[in-house]
Design brief:
about 425 residues, alpha/beta, 14 helices, globular, binds thiamine diphosphate
């Protein structure tokens, strides 16, 4: 609903814009005659301005349209959906009430079953090979290369390429909080999460002394970089963005998805020989044993999360709400094929319960349509955040999403170290 409804959603849409989530916001607006005659309608500001809310969404959506013209409605829907997928960001569609029952021509619309490809930018074929050569040469001549996989990998649709490079190259690799679950944590060259100055000083020193850092899809927010401490000198980094790669500070405009595919091909006969010290590997690859908590003693964060790890199984989607839950969950050890959803930039409490509902519903739909595997949705949230959107539990019950498991971090857990 325009005005009141869309403004209730504006925080979530801004978050989706900041964190690169593709969302389609469809707003039911007053009929076109009511709008053009400037009536004083409920849910409006009473001044006859019906564009005011759409204008508020301008800075936080990739594209907008008002379906007020039957002749262009189909092509307009196509245009905004394309922007949504290409930019992996929200879009905004206004639908006046009198247009709902109109029949429109499908001219300009997507053909049935046509998928919009994630990357719309034209390929710069003519220098792809030279850029691959430069990168390949830098990697080959580095003594101590290291890969950091960050949070925008899925938004850039390069998860497959990045995983393949990590596995085939054997280059020691880590993720940031936002990048957690973008690569399998059980691959032998995958190390613990990189927490910069907030983490183990020996591990940070090890990464700081790498002579080449390959940073993929960075989300360089204060929280995700632990006060910007995981961002290294330009001169030691190759940074892959969506449509550019920066090599030692020099930027090349290029579609990175194709660049990574060519890089993978060019590196098929090469493997990094630098071993990772065992202590820096993900804990499941070591013999580290977590002792049982002492009954009567407060449960410590460090033990709690490690004890939760065996509960996770392949196919699960794990959502961690802002606050203690998201920070604690950095220490979960994820089995193969577990997707983690967290926030590392917008960090608005309360959205994860609704997101968990959406995740469970999406998994069920994908299974029903035969295009996805079954898996549980597991939410870790604090009691404060839960209260922000607790009514989403009614949707979980209504949709019979029995697989949704909610763990509220109790006072005793969150307030004790
Ligand atoms: C919409 C919004 N309001 C306020 C904040 C500031 N904030 C961050 S964490 C937090 C407390 C969350 O409490 P709870 O969910 O119980 O988490 P825990 O105490 O376990 O960290 C608040 C108020 C925020 N991030 N988002």
């Amino acid at each position: 609903v325009f005005g009141v409804g869309e403004l209730s959603a504006i925080n979530a849409i801004a978050g989706a814009y900041a964190e690169r989530s593709p969302v389609v916001l469809i707003v039911g607006t007053p009929s076109t005659p009511s709008q053009s005659s400037g009536l004083c309608l409920h849910h409006s500001l009473g001044d006859g301005d019906f564009k005011v809310f759409a204008n508020m969404f301008k800075p936080i959506t990739a594209a907008r349209t008002n379906l007020s013209d039957m002749t262009t409605a189909a092509s307009e829907i196509h245009r905004v959906l394309e922007a949504c997928v290409h930019e992996s960001r929200p879009v905004y569609i206004e639908l006046p009430t009198d247009m709902v029952s109109k029949m429109i021509s499908t001219h300009g619309a997507l053909d049935n079953g046509t998928l919009i490809q994630s990357n719309g930018m034209p390929r710069a074929h003519w220098y792809e090979d030279s850029v691959v050569d430069i990168i390949r040469q830098k990697i080959g001549s580095a003594q101590k290369p290291f890969i950091i996989v960050d949070g925008l990998v899925r938004a850039y649709d390069i998860e497959g390429e990045v995983n393949a490079i990590v596995r085939s190259s054997n280059i020691p690799t880590s993720t940031t909080p936002a990048g957690k679950s973008m690569i399998s944590e059980l691959v032998p060259n995958v190390c613990r999460l990189y927490k910069g100055t907030a983490g183990d000083p020996e591990y940070s020193a090890y990464i700081n002394t790498r002579d080449l850092l390959i940073y993929v899809a960075p989300l360089w927010s204060d929280c995700n970089t632990f006060g910007f401490s995981t961002i290294h000198e330009d001169s030691t980094m190759i940074v892959f963005h969506q449509d550019a790669v920066t090599i030692e500070g020099k930027e090349f405009k290029i579609q990175v998805k194709y660049l990574l595919q060519k890089l993978l091909e060019s590196m098929s006969d090469w493997q990094c020989q630098a071993p990772v010290p065992a202590g820096f590997l993900t804990p499941d690859q070591t013999s580290e044993v977590v002792s049982e908590p002492d009954s009567g003693q407060p449960i410590e964060q460090s033990a709690f999360w490690r004890h939760c790890s065996p509960f996770l199984t392949p196919g699960d989607v794990v959502l961690t709400e802002c606050g203690t839950s998201s920070i604690g969950a950095y220490d979960l050890v994820l089995p193969e094929d577990v997707r983690m959803v967290t926030s590392a930039l917008w960090l608005s409490i309360g959205f994860m319960l609704g997101a968990a509902q959406g995740s469970a519903l999406a998994i069920r739909d994908l299974v029903d349509e035969g295009i996805g595997a079954a898996g549980r949705t597991i939410l870790f949230t604090g009691d404060g955040s839960l209260q922000m959107s607790v009514q989403a539990i009614s949707d979980i019950i209504r949709n019979r999403l029995g697989e949704c498991v909610h763990v509220s971090s109790a006072w005793s857990l969150s307030k004790h170290p």
